[in-house]
Every structure is written in structure tokens, then in C-alpha cells.
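On clarity, I found the account of how folds are encoded harder to follow than it need be. Since the whole study asks how a given chain folds, the encoding of that fold should be made plain. For illustration, here is how one protein appears when written out as sequence plus C-alpha cells:

:::
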Amino acid sequence: MAPSALQQSQPSKKNGNKKAKNDDNKENEDPGVANVKGAPAKNPPTGVEKLFGEIFVETSSGDIGLQVKDGPLLRCHTVALGRVPGFLSQLRTKLKPLPLYIEKQPLNTMNWLKRKGLKRIAEQIQFASFAEDRYTEGTDVVTKGGWTTCDTMSGTRCGFQRKDPLRLAERYELSEDVERAVELLRFVYLDQIEFMSMKPDTEEAKKKLLNQMVDMLFLANRFAVDQLFARLMRWFPAHCRAVCGDAAFCDAYYKIQYYWQYSVEEPLFRNLMKQTLVGMGCVRMNFQLLSWDDRWTSLPYTFLQLILDHDDLAITSEAELLVLIERWNANRDKDPEEIYEICCCYRQTPENVEALVFFLSNLGMLEQSTATAKKEKKVDESAFSNKEDAIKAGQLAKLFAVLPRRNTKPRRGKTEKKKKKQESGPKDAVAEGTAAATGDQDDDAPEPVADDLAGAFAAVEQSNQVVEVEVEDEDLDAFMVVKKDQETGHFFGGQTGLGFTVVAGETMTQLCAIRDPGQYRIRVAMSQKLAQLWLSNHTCFVGVVYNEHCFCGYQVQASDFLGIYELRCMTSVSAKPEKPVFLTGSGTKVDFDLDLTVDMKLVNGVIGCKFQIMANSVSLTMDEIQVSNKCMQDGGLRFQIVPMGLDHKEQMDIRITWIMGNGNLRK
């Protein structure tokens, strides 16, 4: 039997709908924005999509009632709401429960929507008007469902109660805006929202659509709708400016940033929102709109540091970075410490370092004589206990001991450069192939780094003797980043200072060795750079290296309890960690004092040393070592910090402050 024409046309119609839906999904995708990893796959069709229209019908089969305040009742279905993981539990937690018993609907749902100005939704539910009872009143009759002869005095004894097919299992008060609540339910039932397909023409309509999209984002965060949250975060950088205009794009950006800073608690949402906000600065036109807005000065310096420190920031040169910092400090209300932290994002080269000095001099944060003649005046650095005092004194040497985090070649705006290459045609592709053949290639590929304990302790043992640098008088108390060359196996020195953002394979070693008796104490503050909590695989060795291949120190790592850290003693004699002592910190940061006491030389030429960890001037643990006089004279003792367990994309912030003993250091 030949199939009918209707049966033959059904597959093509299905394929057409599938193709149109795929096109809509492609329109909402943005390759420049991170997606939610581990998101569940799209649910197969189960028939619950047909139940969306029943939530507006008074006699529907819905078992969960969402009572709009001073409005109609939305009868939802547990089987449909349960398809989105976590949504039903959030609904029960965030909304106020109400009694299950309800009177006859006192008002018409469609008329109420029209009276509230929601004509779009009212037109979509006109089909439901046939089920509304317009001719009877809610009187207590025997034939009504739920009618009972039970009362308060007699209870259910000898009572009769008629079954109520419209009885609700749960009922909650809905305080959200009705239009946004309906769109949220539309996404739960149909996996779509109509706001994304709207193309407003007037400025008022564009502003209204923007407010609805921003509020939908906040609503998705409140009720933990992961897929809707991720889809909205792709829509803002990809389509917001084209649909709603430039002014609306800036409004959305600063509203989302404020909401991310103060209201978002879910780590997954915070990370995705942060990546999207920072990624918006990778497009030149978007970044110009954001930086020229009046609200640029209200950004917190921690968030501004994330933007300006991004490798793909859409700027033409590092000089533009100074203009952005000047615009951020236009009201001259920023703390000098915050300005110095922002200046750490400046990628220094021998050609542009003078621009940074001139910029800080114009702000009055450096003496003009110091900016022009860098080291003519010798000032006792030990008189300055912190960075702020050094700033006020205009010590340029002290400044560059703290500022230069990255001395690598500045590379910015890679997204814009790729777009220009694609638009320019095949000529640039040929030139790019020629450059690749000559060896001028992008070195963004991560280096293979051994993150195991053996590789880390090899760096501890070898870096103390291999790296030899010339130390200026101003850098006697500084530390230096040491990294191993994977090809040659040799260690080479990098930036110097007292504050670093380190990656995998980098080690911090004290520049000047300790050779004289005395007490030496440093304060070490370690924090996670990108993670919301301290990762369990991240550990850090903090200790002393001496005699070329010997070390003694402590391994710092997070314990099983949040904010509690373990300290385990480790030595070159026995690299296996000992029993831990515990130290209280925070979720992403821990700080403590590292104290080293060097005794006088004994008759037999042995020098005793006491090594301890202190917190709040209280000793947590102490160990003793002995070194020979020859060891002290040849190599001496050096503080060393070795991060371990870092991936090639992970970072760790380490800040070092001298408490005592740095005045005894000598070349």
C-alpha cells in the first residue's frame, strides 16, 4: 500500500523544523565565550511540551500551583518542572508556601493579562478560554468536588467527602514579574524563550527588551537553571549590541558586573559570568564603548585588574593601558596601593618602561628627580616597612622590585588580529606560512612541566647553585623567579621582587644568601589566582636550601576542612612528609611567618639553625638543622618557595614581606 501524501510530507516538515531550530541555536552560540562544562544533553521529546498551555487553565491537570500575587493561578506539572535539574528544589526553597485550598477563580486570566499590558501572552492563551467557567458561582453545593460533611467538632467520624480532581499537591506564592515567570516556565517546558527572537525598532522597546533579558539572567541564577543561564551569557556578547544598541550594551555590562560582584554565589555561575565579562573586552568596539562610559570609574580594582591583565585585551599598545588607568582614576579617589596593583598589568619592555615611570611621576606618586635620575639618591630601604612608605618616598628601585610581574613580550588583541587576517584574504595566509617556515611562530602552546614531587624537589636542589645573578644594593632582600628550560635542562632567572604571580614550573629563590648569625623572618601570603577555592592538588614548599643539594622546610596544602591548611615538615634526608600541624586561613588564602634563627659558630665549626612556622606571634612547629662553617661561607642559606601541582593554565599569587633580618643581608 502506497503511503499517502500527508505521510510523505511529514518527514520533510520535521526536517525543516529541525533545521530551523538548529539555525536558532547557531545564532545564540558564541565561540568566544566559555560554555558550561558538564551541562546535560538536550532532553528528548517526552510529550510534556504540550502541557505548557494547560498552566493557564483553571481545570488543568497541574499539581503545583504558582499563585501570582493579586493575580491568577498557574497550574504547573511536576513531571515537567523536574526535567530541569535542581529547578524544582529551588522553587520549593525560594517561594513562600500557601494553603492548598483555593476558591473558584475570581478573575479571568486572559482579561487580567490584557489589563496588565501583557497582550502578547494573552493572545497565545486564547485557546484556553473554552475551559473557563463563566456562568456559575463558587457556591458550596453537594455536587462540587471536595465537598464534605466533616466539621471541626466531629472531625472525620461518620463524615463524607467527595473526591476533588482539581486539588493541588503544592501551592506557592509567586512574587516575580508575571511575564518573566511565564518565559521561565516556557523554557522549562519548551526549551526556548521568546525574548531572544524579538527585534525591537524603537529606543523604548530596546530598553525594555534589555531589562527583560537582564532580569531573566538574574532569574535563571536565582532558580539555578543552568542551560538558560549559559544561553543568556552567550547572547549578551554576541547579539546584545546588535539588537539593543550601544547604550543598552553598556547598561547590560555594568548591571551584570555589579550583580556578579555582590549577588552571585554559585561558583560555576561566577566563573562563567567572569569569563564572559572579561571576554567582552576582547572586541575592540565593545571595549571602547565600555571604557568611555562614565561608570568605568566605579569598577573595583580587582575586577579591572582581571580585564587589563587579559592576554586577548583589545588594545593597540601598552600605552593605551596607562590612558585607561588614568580614566579610571579621573576623580583622584583611588588608593595608591590599588593603582600600583593595576600598574602590574602593564607589560614592560625596554622600549615602554619609561612611559610607566613618566605616568607615575605625573600622578605625584614618584619624585620627579627620581624618575629622571633613577639611582642617584641612596635611601635606606630598611626604614620603609611597607610598599606605601616606599611609594611616598619615591623609591624607583623599590617600585620595580614589586611591579614587574610579567617581563615577557606584550601580546594583546589576538582575536582582533585573527579577524583581520581572515578579512585580508589569502595573501596574509601565505605570509603566515612563510613566517612559520622561518620559525616566527606563536608560542602560546603550554610547556610540558613535571608537577610531581620528584620534579619539584629537583628544582629545589638545583636552582640554588645554577643561577648566578648580579645583585644591586636595592635588591638585597628581593626574591627571583627561577624556571627550568625544558630543552637544555638548565635553570634561568626571571623577574625579581617580593610579589609574584607564578605558574607551573616556576620557583622563587632569595637573591642574597644568609651568611651571618641572627634572626631572619619573612611573612608569606599565598592565594589562588583563578580558582574560587584552594584546589586540593595545589601544594607549596616553603623552606631553606643550602649546601647545593640540601633543603629543609614545610609543605603547605589544604586539608579536608574548608579554610584549614596542613603544614608538614620535609627535609632532603627524608622527603616523605611528617605528621601535619594545622593552620587557619580562608577559602583561597593562607599566610604565616617563616622564622630562621642562625646561631654562632661552635668550636668544631658547626652552626646550629632553628627553623619554625609562626602565626599571630605563636610558634606552630619548630625544627633544627646543623650546617658547617664552610657551607655558610660558600653558598649560605636561602629562603625558597616552590609551588607544586599547578596545571599549565593555573596560577598562584605569592606575596613576601620581610619582618626582620633583611638589614643583615650582604653580597
